[in-house]
Amino acid sequence: MKFKCSQQSLSKALNIVSKAVTARTTIPILKGILLNVTKDGKLVLSASDLDLSIEKTIKDVEVEEEGSVVVLAKLFTDIIRKLPSEDILIELSENKNVLIKTATSEFNILGLSPDEFPKIGEIEEEEKLVFGKDIFKEMIRKSAFSASIDDSKGIIVGVLIELEENCTNMVALDGFRMAVIREEMKNEEMKKIVISAKILNEISKILSDIESEEDINLLLGKNKAILNLENIKIVIRLLEGEFIKYKDILPTEQKCKVIVNKALLYESMERASLLSREGKNNLIRFKVDGNLLTITSRSEEGNVKEEILVIQDGSDVEIGFNSKYVMDVLKAIDDEDIVLEMVSSVKPCVIKPTEGNSFEYLVLPVRIS
Which domains does the chain have, with CATH numbers? Predict the structure, then answer.
């Protein structure tokens, strides 16, 4: 194997495929990146942690000799990143040493045999989804933070992607809050898949690094999905099991409906949370009395009161929240005004847009004395 490639192209590609490399593995080959050079001037970089596999193709590589080798991901990436922005010569010797050379620098590092590297593979396609890049990224941003980060919680570490006839939904929950994000979209068949929130967040970072505005193709198989975009192939292992019947959780009644400016609410909560240490659950109290929303919190250091004018419909209510859960939701919303729907101090609060149903967040209350 012997080829030349620009430092910038190689560094960008390594940033992308490195997202599938895990340091927490007992399988040494998974700490590496596979470099595969073909006669037709292509360099394919691959990485996998068995749940997430990423393949990035660089075209127009100057190939003298085809071949493949696995290099340790962290070391190889660090070397390439620190080299000057010029062409790099990479050559594999017979004893599996990898030469990395520029006009002024020369490294020799140990390579590994590619024979044990996992095959990224294909799937028998059952359904193809086409997303606008920004839409897909926004749906992840608005939902994935609500998934559980506790691996022992099973399927709720994932995000449900639900295909309905005229709509695609992303749903995530962790037992304290739930996000339901809806995007109008025609689907040929009804289907549900669950993808790890951690993997979706890595995909979102990759999408941010890509300049292309072309649509994303998501191919769904039985236990895998493949995402294709701009010379990048991402293979995702789907989570197994049945997702919680989230529609049964959404409240059907409301006794107090409040329309409030989102920015004002967030800023008031941010100030109130500075003193929200009561019971160590970041407790903030909401009191709706007519068209006034009063937010209070207290700690050993003191207390705070914030007042916001709102439009209220229904009865007054007093309810407590973990401030982090509400503020996470507010950060994800772009709308100027939002609707809070409440029933009592022990029933969940639902946060919705003032028009339409593009999102629905549910936050469980904290019991207040």
Answer: 2-116 (3.10.150.10), 127-247 (3.10.150.10), 251-363 (3.10.150.10)
